[in-house]
Structures are given as C-alpha cells and as structure tokens.
C-alpha cells in the first residue's frame, strides 16, 4: 500500500514538475516574442517616419538651446578653436561656418522674390534620390530659358572651382550647376545671388536602390566595392551617410588624389577591411569616398556630432528649396514657384533601377529592409542622414503650407471684384 502511495505521489510530483517546467518555458518564449515584437516595432518606427528617440532628444535639446541658449556639448566654433583639433577638421569646420547662399524661399524668402528669380542655381544630386529625373527637368529648363549648365561630378569639380576662383567669380549668364559636388559653389560665385536645391529620399530606401544599381555596374559613386560581393548591411555601412558627406565636401577634396589616398583612404580601408570587401584598383579615389575617409580618420565623434547639429540648425538657411522623392510632384511645383522657371509638374520620379530585375525583387527588398533596420551598425552608419532627412521632412511640410498660402493669395487676388 505504501509503495502504491509513493508511486502515485511520485507521479503527481513529476506531473507538477512538468507543469511548472512547461509554464516557465512558455513564459520565457512569450517574453522573447514580446521583446522581439517591441524591437521590430521600434525599428519600423524609424523607417516609417515616426520620431526616433535620438531625433526626439535632438528636438528637445534644440528647443532648449533656442529658448535658454545652453547646449550640453561644445559648439562647432568652440571645437574648431581647440588646440588638439586636426587641421582637416578645423578646415572643414571653418568652411561649414562660412557657407553662402540664399535661405529657404518659403521660410525666409519673403520680400526677396527677385533674388531667387535671377539667381544661379546649384542642384545637389544625391544619387538614387530622383537625381537623374531632376537633372532631366533642369536640362529642359536650360534649353527653354537659355541658362548655362555646368556639371560638377568627380574629378571635373576642381576645374569648375578654379575657373571661378581665378577669374572674377561671375557667371556670364544665369547658370545651373548640377552634380553631387555642387555644395560649396555658392561660396565662390560673385555678381548674382546663388541658391541650392536638392531632392532627398528615405535613407533606407536610397541605400537599397543604390545597392541594386551598383549590383550590375561600377561607376565611381559605388566606390571601391562591388555590391554583388557584399551583403546589404555591409553595403550600407560602406555608403554611410552620403548626403551628410556631400554637405561637408570641400573644393579641395577632389584635388591631390595621390596624397589623399595615402593619408586617408588607405588607412581607412585597412581599418575596415574586415567589414567591407574592397576591390583593389576599383575607384579608390572617388571624391565622396575620400571625403568619407577624411571624416573617419581625422574627425572625432564629438566633432562629427557638432557638425551634424550645425547642419540641422542651418539646413533651412542653406537650401533654397528642398524636394522629396516621396512627394515629387509637389517638389516640382515648389521649384517652379521659387525660381519662376518652367518645370513641368506632372512628372513622377523615374527610378534608375539598373539591370537587376526579377519577380522576387519586392520580396528581396522587404527582406533587405528588415536586415538594415535590425542592424545597429547600419543605424549608426546612416545616423546623420536619418537625422537630416527627418529635419528635411519638417521643412518640406512648412514649404508646402507656405506654397498653398501663396497660391490661395494669388487666386483671391485674381478674382474679379463683386
């Protein structure tokens, strides 16, 4: 009897232990699942345009500085005067602090309409962000208006700067500068107002588009890496915050290629070769890649952050009009209104997709997006461009509101009196 009791009791204990163990495992699985869902939701919040925590913190700090004049970190000017700062950083900081150009037409252009109408225009071409389509529109505008057009891409950039630096800095007629290295040309031009315009795109979408484009071809904008040899995450880290780099490009970045390679590019490649698969001899001296190497090798994280904060604070004072791929027709309308030029506004972005196309591409892009969003290293690499894009969306919204107000005002003015 006692043996039967012990046997039954043993079975009950085993059953209880099984239930407890099963409950613990189930609770653990629920915890892991919930944590993963929360992480995914947080990551998706970045992609779908919600304020990411770091950007919200920036806004809080920005508003605090605006109202109380305080800042938790040293300013760009303070860091530039630091005796330990590298000459490269001090030079870039000085250039950044002294940028010239017309402020945003819709936010700060009241009463200065004629300045925009008669200005030279510099289009900052961020590749895979509707740039080719926008250049097509600008070429048509130049043909209709008789404007001159000058390309600023890669090694020809230095010659363009030298042409105006050695002369009087005056264009013979209104001129449109196009290319990825136009930012800074307004610093050297004289005689006419000068205005920058650009079109931006969600950084994650842009990176994926650039990956597909560079998968089948290797222009300088792809750099010394073949997309087909690396993962999408390695590609994103390689490309980094490309627009941030373009806004810090100096006229001498494309000069002294051999010196730049030995001082900046080669050490940077050596330091990152375990992450990125570089191809020897493949565009090692692309201007944008040299600029990235300089920023990585000679600029500290504190200095880099100070430059980002300065850019965010001055974006609306540097760029005459900001366009977005995600609302391209509205962008064209605002370009036309600001510069009083015949942009055709019934156009959509024709994305230059390269040659890699198959039926599973959409599924691949979705998978790539999740890989990018799940990577801390990628978020760090794209951090500056994400912040700039979020700021640009705010400015774009204000532009649209002012554009609508101006159009309503025109409509009311043209109505016949009762």
UniProtKB/TrEMBL annotation:
It comes from the Eukaryota. GO terms for molecular function: sulfotransferase activity. Keywords: Membrane, Transmembrane, Transmembrane helix. It holds the Pfam family Sulfotransfer_2. The chain crosses the membrane at residues 20-40. InterPro entries: Golvesin-related_Golgi, P-loop_NTPase, Sulfotransferase. Signal peptide: none annotated. One of its GO terms (cellular component) is Golgi apparatus. Coiled coil: none annotated. This is Uncharacterized protein. It comes from Strongylocentrotus purpuratus.
